[in-house]
């Protein structure tokens, strides 16, 4: 054990002998359909369906196509399919790209307390894991559970996905979730590595010992800088990188490669201790969150679904502006907006740091525009919607949008710092004649009550219809919603790999 500062107080929050990593891994290995409530299984199916919709739409946006071209230039052909493409790649490259497609348009799910995009890391890793599960590996670790004659059943796939959906948020909540965003980490990429490892390990049939190695290997690769949200394209791919990291951990562990043990609770160089460095929270981390309510509290049901094509933290902002437009229609017409003097936007500490920044260039990048509260607000004011089309290259330098961006200022509003309120917003609009109107949204739609499964299916159909034909759309939906009855998920993977159209 390494040395510790004399200021460190040891208690149950940082107990290196708590055994939480082993407890989680034993739970993952033992998880069966009968252990999962029916409503959680159903929600898991809809998370998969939503992720697939986002992946289909995201597969052929310009930045995804550029990534595919780059990877195909140097990666050899493999056995794993890509959403929306006929080409196949090795498992690690496929995981990066498929995870990146799902995150490519900011329409995918998010967890509001421990921010990550679960489908991108879980499905990105599982689609590849399913296609290499029965590949014979050199040295064949006897504990790996390999059975060359066995296909991947739908219920195995769904159970593995839920193992990942449960692991990611727990990994984040143990280090105060949103606090990583405040400190500049791309939190979901950090939490996503163990989530992908958990899902992949479950699907590959690893033992608890090997699952612990897989999670340890994944966690030592965890990273993700939030500066990726400004000029570049790489923010789109970072959750895909986490999917790859988790899958890589599971594939190594399957062959007996030993990873970090006790990776969560280890005090010197452990996951929680290191990623909580620099926080102002007390305690800095809490190992107990890893297993709190395990098997009783289901984070799968707490994952949020997006209705707007922008960062989840600004959904409250979109809805606050929309409410003002409906309540004061004459003020917010194109003519009425000419008399708008200023817009003041109050955000939680996390979202203020993450999205409340003043634009530093014009035009913003596609990514930056979807992560900037001022730009998102202006887009809603001009277009009455925030969808993929609003962030196409041709839309990013519109004068009427930028006039409103330049009248918008964001500030920290502490009323939104409460758990589950961090995506809320207060908007105050002042007009040249002295009139002010304001609106507060404590929680955007989908928090309480959650978005219904019917609404998720509607979102899937709308997105999928923009890039694939109706027959394929309906077949994918049927396969996913009946996935627990499938003997083999191969048909689903094959139909996803057919070409798709561009959504922009």
Mean pLDDT metric: 94
Determine the fraction of residues in helical runs and give it as a percent range: 40-55%
Number of helices: 19
Largest sheet: 4 strands, mixed
Short description:
This protein is of the alpha+beta class. The chain is built from 19 helices and 6 strands. The radius of gyration is 22 Å and the shape is globular.
Helix and strand arrangement:
Layout lengths: L19 H11 L7 H21 L3 H11 L4 E6 L2 E5 L1 H13 L14 H15 L21 H20 L5 H4 L4 H18 L3 H12 L15 H20 L16 H5 L39 H13 L12 E8 L1 H7 L10 H5 L2 H11 L15 H7 L2 E5 L12 E7 L4 E6 L11 H13 L4 H12 L8 H7 L8
Parallel strand pairs: 3-4
Antiparallel strand pairs: 1-2, 3-5, 5-6
Question: How would you describe the overall organization of this protein?
Answer:
Helix content is 45%, strand content 7%. The protein has 19 helices and six strands. The strands form two sheets. Strands 4-3-5-6 form a four-stranded mixed β-sheet. A two-stranded antiparallel ribbon has the order 1-2. Strand 5 and strand 6 form a beta hairpin. Helix 2 (38-58) crosses helix 6. The radius of gyration is 22 Å and the shape is globular.
């Amino acid at each position: 054990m390494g040395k510790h500062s004399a200021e460190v107080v040891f208690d149950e929050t940082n107990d290196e002998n708590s055994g939480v990593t082993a407890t989680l891994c034993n739970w993952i290995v033992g998880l069966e359909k009968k252990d999962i409530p029916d409503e959680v299984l159903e929600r898991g199916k809809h998370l998969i369906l939503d992720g697939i919709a986002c992946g289909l739409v995201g597969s052929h946006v310009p930045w995804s196509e550029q990534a595919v071209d780059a990877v195909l230039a140097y990666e050899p052909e493999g056995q794993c399919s890509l959403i929306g493409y006929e080409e196949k790649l090795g498992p690690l490259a496929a995981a990066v790209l498929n995870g990146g497609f799902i995150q490519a348009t900011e329409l995918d799910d998010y967890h509001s307390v421990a921010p990550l995009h679960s489908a991108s890391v879980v499905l990105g890793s599982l689609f590849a894991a399913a296609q290499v599960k029965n590949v014979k590996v050199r040295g064949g670790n006897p504990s790996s559970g390999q059975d060359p004659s066995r296909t991947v059943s739908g219920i195995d796939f769904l159970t593995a996905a839920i193992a990942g959906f449960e692991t990611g948020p727990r990994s984040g909540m143990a280090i105060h979730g949103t606090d990583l965003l405040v400190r500049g980490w791309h939190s979901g990429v950090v939490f996503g590595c163990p989530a992908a490892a958990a899902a992949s390990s479950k699907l590959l049939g690893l033992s608890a010992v090997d699952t612990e190695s897989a999670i340890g290997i994944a966690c030592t690769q965890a990273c993700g800088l939030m500066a990726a949200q400004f000029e570049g394209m790489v923010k789109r791919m970072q959750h895909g990188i986490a999917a790859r990291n988790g899958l890589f951990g599971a594939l190594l562990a399957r062959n007996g490669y030993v990873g970090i043990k006790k990776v969560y609770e280890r005090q010197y160089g452990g996951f929680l201790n290191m990623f909580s460095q620099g926080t102002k929270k007390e305690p800095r981390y809490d190992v107990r969150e890893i297993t709190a309510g395990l098997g009783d509290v289901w984070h799968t049901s707490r994952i949020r679904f997006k209705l707007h094509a922008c960062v989840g933290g600004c959904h409250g902002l979109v809805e606050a502006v929309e409410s003002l437009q409906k309540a004061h229609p004459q003020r917010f017409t194109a003519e009425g907006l000419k008399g708008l003097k200023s817009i003041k936007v109050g955000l939680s500490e996390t979202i203020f740091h993450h999205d409340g920044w003043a634009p530093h260039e014009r035009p913003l990048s596609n990514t930056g525009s979807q992560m900037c509260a001022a730009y998102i607000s202006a887009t809603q004011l001009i277009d009455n919607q925030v969808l993929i089309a609003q962030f196409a290259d041709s839309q990013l330098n519109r004068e009427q949008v930028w006039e409103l961006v330049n009248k918008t200022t964001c500030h920290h509003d502490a009323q939104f710092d409460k758990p589950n309120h961090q995506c809320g917003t207060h908007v105050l609009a002042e007009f040249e004649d002295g009139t002010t109107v304001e609106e507060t949204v404590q929680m955007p739609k989908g928090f309480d009550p959650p978005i219904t499964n019917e609404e998720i299916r509607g979102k899937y159909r709308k997105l999928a219809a923009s890039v694939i034909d109706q027959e394929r759309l309906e077949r994918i939906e049927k396969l996913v919603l009946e996935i627990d009855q499938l003997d083999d998920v191969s048909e689903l993977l094959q139909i996803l790999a057919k070409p798709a159209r561009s959504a922009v």
